[in-house]
Amino acid sequence: MKITTCKVCFAALALLFTATASASTTALTFTGGQGNNVEQNVMAGWRFQTTQSVTVDNLGVYGLRGGLVFSHQVGIWDSGGNLLATGTVPAGNSGAFVNNFWFTPVAPVMLQAGQIFTVAAFYGSPGEEIVTLLANVTTDPAITYVDRATSLTTMFSFPINNNALNLSGDFGANFTYAAATPEPASFLLLGIGLALITVGRRRV
Known about the structure:
The protein is α+β, with helices and mostly antiparallel strands. The chain has 2 helices and 13 strands.
């Protein structure tokens, strides 16, 4: 009876972890648009608003499947210009290639719901391509695309210009996130698991 109880207990807990696990989601994808070689010394990105809290786990930049020409520092800022997350996507093809973006992992950072943030990458040398014009943007329901964000600068910094030239965006920078919300069934499974553990201990 003791062994059977433990087996049921572990099965319940395994189901709990499966129910609460959440795979990373690419924040933004697009179709169409016009590719352009980036000017030297520019921050290029876009602003977005969160509709629910999300946890950023990777930062990335747009690039061809063959790899990036240069490494690029990418960051996410709040509306006050405070840097919340940053990482450097390496040159070449050593990063993770997903949906036409090269990604690098960063320490998880939670973005609270209902706030406006900016994601942007620094381009310090010409030769990399971004998409700027007439791109059809798609975002996950957890975030809403706001507008373009850019700055001419010689260093990695918060981009201060929004919706410049009325272009649809500078893609550019991107990120992935997890938005794990335990389902009601998860709490039921947790309760069952803890109850069975208690029963098993009493029978020892």
